[in-house]
Specification:
- The chain has about 160 residues and is mainly beta.
- The chain has one helix and ten strands, in the order E-E-E-E-E-E-E-E-E-E-H.
- The chain has a four-stranded mixed sheet, with no helix packed on it.
- A hairpin with a 3-residue loop joins strand 1 and strand 2.
- The chain starts with 6 loop residues before the first strand and ends in a 13-residue tail after the last helix.
- About 10% of the residues are buried.
């Protein structure tokens, strides 16, 4: 999913959001709506992206992914977000992601980056992402090429 898109599914019930800020502040707003919210003004955000997620018996969980570890990111003093589940104990949720960064190239420091994640109940539908630029297509091809190739086998012996 790199290059050109900011969000994508991780299995049926999870999503990843890719920020451009490597180290610095990032503002995240999470809205849980009863129905599909109206689009946000385009002059405040990049093109919105949407994906469908399968809600099961657990509440919505927000976490950060750090290199080599997953740490809980929800503030200790706030209750976890809850979205009521239908009687069948699962259902589909639509996730819309808006992003904005004053400095869109990945890097360190304050990029004035902010994200708005909107969630609402809706049937599963195809993802919506912005069109990929030729630069994004080339970067994706280079990324894919760097990930393909012969698998190196490593053997480690342990004393008995």
């Amino acid at each position: 999913m790199p290059y050109g898109w900011r969000c994508g599914p991780v299995g049926a019930a999870g999503a990843v959001v890719l920020p451009v800020t490597e180290d610095g502040p990032l503002r995240l707003t999470l809205q849980i709506n009863d129905s599909q919210p109206a689009p946000e003004p385009d002059d405040h955000w990049e093109t919105a992206e949407e994906i469908s997620l399968l809600s099961e018996d657990s509440p919505i969980h927000l976490a950060t992914l750090d290199p080599g570890e997953v740490s809980d990111a929800w503030p200790q003093d706030l209750p976890r977000p809850q979205m009521p589940l239908p009687s069948s104990h699962h259902g589909w949720i639509r996730m819309r992601l808006y992003c904005h960064a004053d400095a869109p190239e990945p890097g360190v420091d304050d990029h004035e980056e902010r994200h708005l994640i909107q969630l609402w109940r809706a049937p599963a539908t195809a993802p919506v992402h912005p069109a990929l630029s030729e630069e994004d297509r080339q970067a994706r091809a280079e990324y894919t090429a760097s990930r393909t190739g012969p698998v190196q086998e490593y053997t480690i012996g342990f004393p008995q």
